[in-house]
Amino acid sequence: MDYYNELQKNPIEEFEGYEPKRDPGRDYKLLEELKIALSIPSRLKELMSVSKKSFRRYVIFIGLLASIIVYLIPSAANIAGFGGFRHLFLEKIPAFKYENGSLKAEKKFDMMISGYHIYIDTDQEEVEPSTLPSNGMYLTFGSKYVNFALVEKSAVNDFSTTLYKMDNSGFFNEGMSNQQFAEASGGFYISIIVISIISALGMIIKYLFLAFIYTVILLIPYKIAIKNIYMDEAFKISFYAQTIGILISCINTSLGSILPQMLVSVVGIFITFRLIKYTLSYDKNEEI
Q1: What is the enclosing helix (H) or strand (E) of 38?
Q2: At what angle do helices 231-240 and 30-39 cross, to 10 degrees?
């Protein structure tokens, strides 16, 4: 029998550094991957060998899902709350007109839309961040300038600054008023979809980078001890293990950060580390 086994050996295997041909991986249904990542830690190890196609699809799905939760759903709720963009421009925002290089609105206006304050005060050429009424991100309109501003005021800190400033001529055309904006409402809906896609791409990059960090910090020691684990397998587990933390953080953000975001992030990181460690240590015959 030993002689027979010797005959079956591939001579190439004797060379140092030889690695046997790897399995291309198994295709999973997207919902099955999500189910495992959310509720079946003992099966996470299976996802080490998921196919590249299934993994890429899952990465894109998580990015889109996070963007929908964080940006698109709150935006849709806000839009429904003020009755759509056409109603917003014709009924909510005070009458305004841009002519002779100056914007004039009949009164001040402050409204929260998709996490941003829309603030109009044309009594000022440029709205000073220090005069803004509450904390948050602002898109402000003065008679001459449009500003993006950040306001963070507390008992121990007073931080108000303009992040970006542009002349009103870069935002308005001569003679523009509420009616022209109402007629362009379709463009605002398209812009929300475009921003959602851009947001999803940003989140994909963010979560892939975090997966790389988790791999470097936690999985390289396991790679040293467990010779049969490849780095791409470790990377996949690092990404799948983030799923619970990602959803907790996104839901908290969409609800207006009802819990401190730092606390939620720490909880998400702890869950991710525990799932990675559990996955690498899991044995069907002996759970730890």
Answers
A1: helix 30-39
A2: 80
Per this entry, what is the length of the chain?
288
Query: H or E segment at 152?
Result: strand 145-153
Name residue, tokens 């079956």.
8
Q: What are phi and psi of 263, to 5 degrees?
A: -60, -45
Q: Please name the residue that has the structure tokens 């295997």.
A: 13
What is the C-alpha to C-alpha distance for residues 234 and 232, in angstroms, rounded to an integer? 5
Name the 3-class secondary structure at 80.
Answer: helix
Alpha carbon distance 142, 125 (integer Å):
5
Element (H, E) at 136: strand 136-141
CB 192 within 8 A of CB 72: yes
DSSP string, 242-263: THHHHHHHHHHHHTT-SS-HHH
Do 204 and 246 touch, CB atoms closer than 8 A? no
Residue given tokens 């309109």 in the structure block: 141
**68-104 tens-digit pLDDT:** 998 889 888 888 888 888 988 888 888 999 998 899 9
pTM for this prediction: 0.74
Mean pLDDT to the nearest integer, 22-46? 84
Distance CA 246, CA 238 (A): 12
Strands 145-153 and 136-141: antiparallel
As a whole number of angstroms, the distance between CA 221 and CA 273 comes to 14
Question: Which residue type sits at 32?
Answer: E
Q: Give 206's contacts (C-beta < 8 A, 6+ positions apart).
A: none
b/e burial code for range 209-218 (CB count within 10 A of at least 16 → b):
ebbeebbeeb
Cβ–Cβ under 8 Å, residues 27 and 49:
no
Residue 110 DSSP one-character state:
E
Please check whether residue 78 is in contact with residue 112, taking contact to mean a CB–CB distance below 8 angstroms: yes
